[in-house]
Structure formats: C-alpha cells, structure tokens
Amino acid sequence: MKHILSVLVENKPGVLARVSGLFSRRGFNIDSLAVGPTEDPDTSRMTIVVDADNLRLEQITKQLHKLVNVLKISDLDPRDSVERELVLIKVSAPPNMRPEIVETANIFRANIIDVSKSTLTMEITGTADKIQALEDLLRPYGIKELVRTGKIALARGKLAEV
Amino acid sequence: MRMTGAEALIKSLEKEGVDVIFGYPGGVVLPIYDALYDCKTIRHVLVRHEQCAGHAADAYARATGKVGVCLVTSGPGATNLVTGLANAWMDSVPMVAITGQVATAVLGTDAFQEADITGITLPITKHNYLIKDVNQLPTVIRQAFELARSGRPGPVLIDMPSDMSKAEIDFKYPEDFTIPGYKPVYKGHAKQIKEAAKLLTRAEKPIIYAGGGIIKSEAWKELKDLAEIIEAPVTTTLMGKGAFPDEHPLSLRMLGMHGTRYANYAIMDSDLILAVGVRFDDRVTGKISAFAPHATIIHIDVDPAEISKNVVAHVPIVGDAKTVLKDLTAAVNKIEKPYADKTRWHAMINEWKKKYPLHYHQDGQIRPEYVVETISKLTKDKDTVITTGVGQNQMWAAQFYSCNTPRGFISSGGLGTMGFGLPAAVGAQIGRPDAVVVDIDGDGSIQMVSQELATVAANKLPIIIAILNNGYLGMVRQWQELFYNHRYSQVDLNVGTPDFIKLADAYGLKGVRVTQVEDVEGVLKKAIEAREPVLIDFMVAREENVFPMVAPGTSIDEMLGGIPGAAISQMIDEQEEEEKDETYPVGTRGK
Ligand SMILES: Cc1ncc(C[n+]2csc(CCOP(=O)(O)OP(=O)(O)O)c2C)c(N)n1
Q1: Which one of A127, B261, B331, B334 has the largest count of C-beta atoms within 10 Å of its C-beta?
Q2: Neighbour tally for B472: CB within 10 Å
Q3: Are B182 and A13 a contacting pair at CB < 8 A?
C-alpha cells in the first residue's frame, strides 16, 4: 500500500544523504521524494511516498526516527490530507495539432508555459489520477520530455482551527 | 578562555572525564597531538594500526562502561578505522571517534589524504559531525558523548578539519544543550508492563532470552531478581554473556547456532519468551519461520526499531532494560501467588541438561575446549576479562568459559571481526589494570593484528594471549567439512604462519608453546600468577569442530552434534545416522 510520509528534518548538511541512504541500505523502496524549506529556515520538509505493508512501514518510520536530524514524521492519511504534484510536459505540437492540444490542456486546467515551432510545454498540478489522465491523452501526440516534482502533502487543517 | 580548536578539543574531552585515548597521529591531527603533549589527565595509547584504536576503545568501553575514545588522522587513518567503527556499531558500543580532516578550504577537492569519512561512516555510526565552525566544537563534543552513551549506545564520529584545530575560540563547555530530534524512551509503558507481568506469572514454560542490552544498561541484578522470582530459566546471547551467571541453576547458557542443546530446546518449546536487550539475530533464531512456534513474546528494548523487526512481539515494551525490569518485577510482585506451576518445565530442562551437557573428548591431544575450560577454572575467583578472536576459538570460549560477572566477556558479535581479540585485550587491560585479561584467540585471527604485540610490550600490559593454534582457518574449515564435502579450499595456515614464540620474542614478550595436554594447566597457572605479558601457543587438535551446531537455514532445535557418547568426531547419533542417509548427522530432541 502507498503511504505518504511527511518528514520534518533539521536543515543540516548531509541530511538528505542520511535519509536516502537509509532507504537504500535497508531495502525500502521510495516512489518519490520531494524536499524543500519550510516556514522555519532551520527545518526542511521531505515528502516521501513509499509502497509498503504496515509492518514494513513501521520499520521504516522507526528507522527514520533514529536519525538524529529527523524531528517529526507523520504518515499522512489520504482522507485527512491534501496532496499535490507539479508536472511539466513538453509535447510535440505541429501547427495543425496545436488547437486540439491546447483544448485538452484547458480541460485539465493545465497552463501552457512555453511554445516553440514544434512543441508546447505545459504545467499541471493535481492528483496522480488527473495527471495520469492528461499524460495518457497527450501521449499519442508524442511526449518529448516530462518531469514531476514528486508528491508534496500536508495534513488538512483541523476543523477546530478553521 | 581563549584557545585553539585543538586545545578546546582536549579540554572538552577532559570535561567529559576521558582518561585515555587510543590513537595514531598524522599530518592533519598534528595540532591535536601538540595540545595532547601538555595534557596531564589524559593518557594516550599509541596503537600500531588505526583499526585497533577502534577495537581498543570499543573494548575499553565494554570493560568499564565508560565511553571509549579514539583519535586518528585523515584519509588512510580514517579509513583504517572503519572496521573499528562498524564493529562498535553492530554491538552498540558507546564510542567517540575523532578523525582529522583536510582544511575546510580544500574540502571536496581530493586534497592530499582527503577521504569523505562522514559519508563513508553514515551507515555505521549513530551520528557523525563535520566541524565547519570551530565555535560549535564544544557543543558538538557534548552532544557526541551524550549520543554515544544514551539510549541505544553506539559510535559517534567527529571529523575535524585541520584549520578548525588551529582557529581560536573562546572556550566554554556548554552546560545546557539540546538534541531536538533525539529523545530516547527509558520508562516502559505501564499498561504493557502490567500485561507482561500477568503473562509471566501465568506461563508454564517461560524463558528469559537476555542480551547485550542488559550489560549496556547495567540491569544484571534486576534480571537475576526477576528470573528468581518467576523461576524462569535464562539463556543469553553471545553479547549477553555475563549478564546472567553461567553457573546459576537457572542458566541455560548461550543459545543459537552454537548454543547448548538445552537452551535451544527450551526456547523452541517455551510458551512465553521474555526477550530483553536482544535483537533476534539470525545466529540466534535459525530459520525464523520455525522459531519458537508456541511462544508469546514480550520484547523489551530501548531501540523501538528492534521490536518486531525480525520476530513480531506480542507485548512490545520500549524502554531501558534496568528501568523496565525493575518496574516489571514490582508488577509481578503485586500479583498474588501461586504463579503457574513450573515443576514439569524444570524437570524437562534438567533432563535435557543431563542428557546433552557441553562436552568434548579427552584423548591425549590438547582439545581447545579443555584449554578454555582450564582458563575458566583457574580464573574463577579472580576479576577476569576474556576477549576473543572470531571463529571456533570464539565459540569455544563462549561455550566453555563460565562467565559469572558482567563485563567479563568481550567478543565481536554482530560484525564477527577477526582480529578483535588482541586490541580488545589491550583496551580491556587499560580500562581494568588489575583484572586478569585473557585473549582467547585463533592463529588466523591474531595474524590480522599481530602488530599490536608492540602496544602490549610498550605498555607492559599483563595480557595472557592464548592462541588455540589449529593451523587452520578453523571455522571455515568446519563449514567446508560439513557442508562442502571436505573440500578444504584456502584454509590451511600451516605454511607461512610464523613461529608465534619467535614472534613474541621479537617484540620482547615471553612466549610459551604447549604441545602436551599435561602442561596446559601448569603453564596457564604460571601465566596468571606472573602478571606480565605472555603469549601461549596451544597446539590443539587440528580438526576439532564446534558442536552443537545449527546448520544454516534450519530450525535451532535441529542441531548437529553435542550428544555425549555418540561415536565419530563426538557428534553422531548412530541410530539417526542409519535411518537417514545424510552426509552429516541430524540431532533429535530424544523424543
Ligand atoms: C576480518 C574477517 N575476515 C574473514 C572472516 C571469515 N571467517 C570467520 S571465522 C574464520 C576463520 C578464523 O580462523 P582462526 O582465527 O584461525 O580461528 P579458528 O576458527 O581456527 O579458531 C574466517 C576466515 C571474518 N570473520 N573476519
């Protein structure tokens, strides 16, 4: 089962190597890992998507906790969290196909961010399903390049906080 | 106070109460060695290879309970230390290692003697630091010692660039400090403890499986109290040897691959396992899916990641062994007697003990087991520390040396590092100058570190080095005999092995060769009384095997050998042999 771990770490040199090294040497698979600064300059947040059963997930979390630079780990429940991923897609777009492609992009609320003679590049954010659907529709035109940020996620605000 | 980074380093170590450093100098640590030159409180022991600085600091820590400290130069000095760190890491030994590093200005440029030692040691240290701001040095050292000794102990490395050693700081050793991401849990969960107590009083076939964690948390008294109250037999791991007296009536001695038959039978038959400070290593559990099928498992460990890692615990208790055992005993005492009747359980165990004692043949050759047994007998009432090499010598030491005091048996468990024995004896003897220190070693193992005879000589350490010389890489040979059809590939050491007596002599040490079984006791007696370094070369029966043995991948109650009176190389149950056409015999429980 897929789990999204939101891992708050101290912003210290080598912390990414510590985390990624732990995953590789203990044989835990990472689906994606996104990392960036938080509201506090001394900490970073890693969003790690892993595919693991409960026992394995428990082991992953416990091992992560042992890293001195790891401050907090939350296993985000999809029902109680919001997640997003940003994807950039460069698709082959000869002039005669262009309207069709732009139309498709609009339906998905993807933004065209670069245009060249033969290609269009668009950005899309959303859930994995939505992104997959767009990718499938664009594939016949020829996807030249694609890059994904990996999922980022946060727990939803508690009702009381609203 | 204004001082250099190097001086601040030494000052900080003094503040931590460090009284000895095991080390080896080199270019980038010159400023540190210069600061050490004026230091009156810290003794520096010059080893002859950095690996041994690690092992000596490691054994010093195990023998004393203090944090071991080692200091080496950058590049090759640091990489030589890697095995020492890995060994301490696997056996959870509190250690602080200081490595020199090239100056910060040239870091990352492949400068002369640069090695990315923090990168290299990420997976084998509890934590490591690269000093890039000398003002942080005192805090880092404070944290490093705290990390090394608290929670589940382990080695911590501090990498010190040469310019950091030379830079000046205002020294103040921090009183207060925090490590925000580090909060070991010491007190066990009250409800879980209550549940465990209930189970312990109700079990008819309980067993305590105790490991190195007991020694780390100094919980030996609590362990003994609880075992006696609930009348549970106790088996220890290799790391736990000494946590419970081997000669206590409730002791089952060591379990696992070369454990006693009765320990392995008992844990496999038990209905309740109280596992404390152990990690269900594969050398203990054998085939894991077959391990202790009837048992409910209570697992106490200070490292939550060990609980349910290999074997699922029914009652997990995260906490320090000493604290939890104390609370557990109190909880047990609150439960009204009588507890479950264990008469049958003890009768069964006593039957196994009678039927399958550890034993060996005495036939005029020097049997290695006999040498160990004699060491055990002669040191019985003395403060003694045994260290070991790795291989058969180590297993015979574990089986036939009766350790009745904690910190009395020091061996490389998790990593199984050949060469650990001699530098470990150095560290142990320096930490416990009055103890009788005996290194029970193999002829192969000791050749990996024989340069340390110089350290023994230079420091006049009264270590007894007992080599069980079989002219083989014995344990590998045993596996080849049993599982590779006697094909002895690359294990014969007879050609090329030095004359150990001459070797000792070359270092100015006394050496004695023992070739007659009658001389074993006399030579050992003299050595123990002499209080001076001595190397004893015991020419033992060459193809002696360690039994019982659990073949890899099998359940731990399916042991080879260890049945008294059985013919051929003291291991074969003849009936079994006829019934099964096996190349090696399979023991049975004598059902
Ligand atoms: C550094 C290292 N290299 C290789 C091994 C594999 N190994 C385990 S036991 C053993 C043989 C040990 O021989 P010796 O020290 O003579 O002891 P004996 O088994 O004969 O008592 C070897 C090679 C090891 N444990 N450590």
Answers
A1: B261
A2: 23
A3: no
